[in-house]
Description:
Oligomer: heterodimer
Strand content of chain B: 15-25%
CATH class of chain A: Alpha Beta
Shape of chain A: globular
Largest sheet of chain B: 6 strands, mixed
Order of helices and strands of chain A: EEEHHEEEEEEH
Order of helices and strands of chain B: EEEHHEHEHEHEHEHEHHEHEHHEHHEH
Radius of gyration of chain B: 21 Å
Low-confidence stretches of chain A: 88-93
Mean pLDDT of chain B: 95
Mean pLDDT of chain A: 89
Strand order of the largest sheet of chain B: 4-5-13-10-11-12
Largest sheet of chain A: 5 strands, mixed
Number of domains of chain A: 1
Distance between the termini of chain B: 62 Å
CATH architecture of chain A: Roll
CATH architecture of one domain in chain B: 3-Layer(aba) Sandwich
CATH superfamily of chain A: Beta-grasp domain
CATH topology of chain A: Ubiquitin-like (UB roll)
Helix content of chain A: 10-25%
Structural class of chain A: alpha+beta
Amino acid sequence: MAVKVRIPTPLQRLTEGKEEVEGKPGKLIDLIMELDKQYPGLAERVSENGKIRRFVNIYVNEEDVRFLNAEETEIKDGDEVSIVPAIAGGRGI
Amino acid sequence: MGYVTGLKCRECGRQYEIEPIYVCEFCFGPLEAVYDYQKIKKAISRKKIENRDENLWRYKELLPIDKEPQAGLYSGFTPLVKADNLGKELGLKELYIKDDTVAHPTFSFKDRVVAVALTKAKEFGFDTVACASTGNLAHSVSAQGAKAGFNRFIFIPATLEESKITSSLVFEPHLIAVDGNYDEVNRLCSEIANRYRWAFVNINIRPYYAEGSKTIGFEIAEQLGWKAPDNVVVPCASGSLLTKIWKAFKELKEVGLLRSAHTRVYAAQATGCNPIVTAIKNDTDVIRPIKPDTIAKSLAIGNPADGYYAYAAVKESGGYGEEVTDDEIVEGMKLLARTEGIFAETAGGVTVAVTRKLVQQGYISKNEVTVICVTGNGLKTREALDGKMASPIYIKPNIDAFEEVLKRI
């Protein structure tokens, strides 16, 4: 089993149009960096210098990672990660 | 004319053309207007401004329009009331109320932002304007949109007070009452804004709209004789107003109209909706969204879009933030009314009550120049005072009955 990562519409260009991709368990920031190898450009859109961008919200199983351990949040097998631009509404999700 | 060179992402700095857009395509940060301050510096002077009509367009060079103003031609330039009676109550020597209870045409500071938004909407060629609102914005877009000849779609939370609904409906917009709170209404509107080519004043026109709030700061400085106050207490909903008032003082300094912009900016919220004040108190720039529960409905935004920037402005200016309970809000409204003869909406009760706390805690001191922003009229939130005031004294229509009462007063 892997980690499910939900990709918002504006970033789906980078994921070949996929709404959902698979990531590896571990620290959230490492998961993002790992995904970037497969989908180049993804990491810089959602993070900068190893930090999640201010207007990008990331949820792990519905919980905002800012209230977990932010970039360092441990993601386990079977977890669901959602990337949601703060402007949300129809544009993002 | 036109002194705006483009839009710029507040987060990553990417530049964009002047268009009805509001979000950075790259990092999703908010966009803001960029001005050519050198050019503005050459174009304006205190004297030039003072000779203009008394409305918010006297600062037009510092507002994001390209042609002449086309809406809100009578908005702004509200009184800066010297509040000696209230000052005595609070223990302040030089206190002022920036009184937007008499803003034209709909009695709240939203008439400022809407004046700018509708002018910009005309420049972009829109025929329909829309907004998500807790009340005040709805009134202003309904009214000013009528005068400027726009189709209007107004989205409000269905739980809004009856009096606030009437104050929009009278202008005959399409008023859509949504079964949800303000944050949900806003989310729905973002979706609608993506589907229809309308000017949503607080969505796709937001970078321009928000700039209108600066005029409160410009006016305060001019009305104090071109001086920035030592303290300004600002109510926070999205946090935009506070951010823009701080920006106003800095801009006036930048273009040479103020010698110093030393103002400390204070955030005022209700305890039932305090995400910005909580961040300030905890000294963290992470804004934790909450579910609002307060009588100050015009401030009830649980997930404030400009929360981080409001936090940053407060910190940069050396200010602070404080919150007050619903009872304290009502007490603040009554105190302002009985000392200064000003009937403010609940948000005004928030700023007055918060100022009292800030003085008691020593953040604001006696000999400084302090301005309290009162941003809306009390007739809009009359319900907040139900059962909280003394009753009239009922008598028979004869002199004996009256004199009987007089003995007891």
